[in-house]
Design brief:
heterodimer, A: 325 residues, mainly alpha, B: 499 residues, alpha+beta, Rossmann fold, Dna Ligase, domain 1, 15 helices, 22 strands
Chain lengths: 325, 499
Amino acid sequence: MNLLARYAECIFWMARYMERAENLARILDVHETFARDTRGMTNWFSIVQLNADEKDFFSRHDRPTAEAVVHYYMFDTQNTNSLVSMLRMARENARVLRPWISTEMWTQINVFHNKLVEMNGKGVALPNLSKVCTWIKEECQTHTGITEGTFYRDQGWYFYQLGKYIERADQTTRLLDIKYHTLLPSPVVVGSTLDMSQWTTVLRSAAGYHAFRRVYPRGMSPTTVAGFMMFNEGFPRSVVMCVRQIDGLLTRLKSRYTLRNGSEAMEKVDELLGALLAHPIEEVIQLGLHEYLDGVQAQLCGITNEIGRAFFGQDTVPMTQSQSQ
Amino acid sequence: MSVPEGKATDLLTNYDPGLYYDELFGGRDYPAEHSALIRQRLAGLNFGDLLRRSQDAERELYNLGITFLVYSNKDAVDRILPFDIIPRVISAKEWAHLEAGITQRVTALNLFLHDIYHDQKILKDGVIPADLVLGNSCFRPQMVGLDVPFDTYIHIMGTDLVRDREGTFRVLEDNGRVPSGVSYVVENRHMMQRVFPDLMQDIGIRPVDNYGHKLLDAMMEIAPQDVADPQVVLLSPGSYNSAYFEHIFLAREMGVPLVEGRDLVVENDRVYMKTTNGLARVDSIYRRIDDAFLDPKAFNPDSMLGVPGIMEAYRKGNVALANAIGTGVADDKAIYCYVPRMIKYYLDQEAIIPNVDTRICREADALQYTLDNLDKLVVKPVGEAGGYGITIGPRASKEELADCRAKLLADPSNYISQPVVDLSVCPTVTDDGIDPRHVDLRPFAITGKNTWVLPGGLTRVALKKGTLIVNSSQGGGSKDTWVLQDGGPQDGAQEGSAS
């Protein structure tokens, strides 16, 4: 059966927003833990920096206090990077897709969104933040489970996974970046007990601690953790793992449904995969991890654009975005 | 959980439908036997339980997103259509009568549309004033001389019926453009099966869930004959349309893509949809967009919802549209008055379901009568939908009557008047217990080669005490409508209109 270009795009973005929401909940949760030490303010501000939201944030807040940042990323409807905005976008896409997705998928996103909006009225006290983040993470995982169990396996399924893995790769680079942003520049604590506990937290927030221990039973260094999250071939949130998935998905999508377009997107994926496999982590850190991660993010963005051109009809006929208001 | 088969007292003891015909009890002197068992089961319930089930149902509807969008200021809010869990029950005999009447009406309206877009005999014979048809804003000159498959114009028809004090069903309005509400018919049934299985048990209710299947059959029938496996789509104005849920529902039931105008293009007078693999041919379109917005090249040039060039593709016979273009002239409130004569003219039959007595204010006598009896009549503008602009004489204030009088005098041809129909009532769950509320009924008919009427329809209920307006935009809700199977308990109610 034919898949409408617009549906493919909505499926792709629904998956991305759900994955993004899960990752933001993970990041907020990590910071809640960090904030318990003396670094409180700096750490919270780094989330704002990470998303390049400084301008927008300071237009409504004087200082990046814990309360302000948490509210900004949980409930601020004017902030497109807040959880409530992401859920709204996921739901809007799901709403368009209701003829295509299962009723269970739609219902879960709908109820999830409505509960989050209701929660906004009550506000979230900081001590509860971790609990709320856990709830959000679990709702996202419920979505993943329902999708796995009910999404009809045709072209749409491929676009769903493409969206999910591109977003996940992007988010892992951000999670790593935030750690380097805030912790590494301070030479005093590198390798200290505090530093190690924080790296452990990063791994735990990506549910990677036990997997990491399996690979590195003894010791833990910024290099091994970063290398694990970037290049490990078995860890489901590692960047290489995600990009390999994207590669396989695009190949199968094109051949199984004999789609004419998409070669450029495949080339870009090859390029990224080649780049990822070219340098060991030590080299990457030496050259500057932050810049490296920026580069990966830009390449993921390029892949998204190519997918849009190839399959979402962004290339062929000019789309008037404002038609449905 | 099962309902104790209580005595027919308890919960319904104090229920009093007053002078109105009651859909569950029947007329005052003719208790409806076909619904006796249902009454008995309801009476045995405890009110708390009933309320709980009712709340469960509404929460479920909200969670499932069975909602419509309401615009207030700049916000769009999702609302459910309030659902009442006490069903409206129609006996097999009553239904046979309605089914025949609706089929007759659809047939006549299709004959009328074919006639006015071809030979215009009915106008030449003076049965209907020509200017009422040719001067109507919904008359589409582009349709003149065009042949459509099986001469069917109204493929999907919703007929609004009311039941008067004597128990006679009457047609209040025809909806032959883009009638909505059928999704609630099916979803309400699902909801009842979920929250009230014990009430339904062994009653023998005719199913409604094959509507999508019947609709798809009709859409395939009318597709261009040279296409072996026609591609059907549902064309929606988009997710911000208040009836979007219904579009989703129907697309899903038919298993066809739900497209918007921006998903379609016309090339060489053929319609295509944009897919992940480029353009794919479209053969048959169930469109939920009004004529005026369908094609900026042919109609309203400002429409952003439509598909430029689709009218030409349609004229060439390369794509089927349901409903056809230009059906609005047949369901106009002014034309409505002539439908009984239309039935006589084309079919040489009396209308099986009578109209409500209607006066056309463009005629001098009718205007005078309306002005003289303003406080007793319902005055309706002919162009409006959704219950807007209606003045109900007996309930209007002096100011409202004066306002109505002024409007009538300023533009008489824009109005019709009807006596107040004492809409029948049905027991309904309210905060104060089970109370009578006014209801109407909109059955749906699908016509491709032949006509099929969905057994049941949308029962809309005016939830506000005393009010007669059942429209969802004006605080109405809905009920499940049970058409009983033939051979089930028969009703002893006299049907004034049964022929």
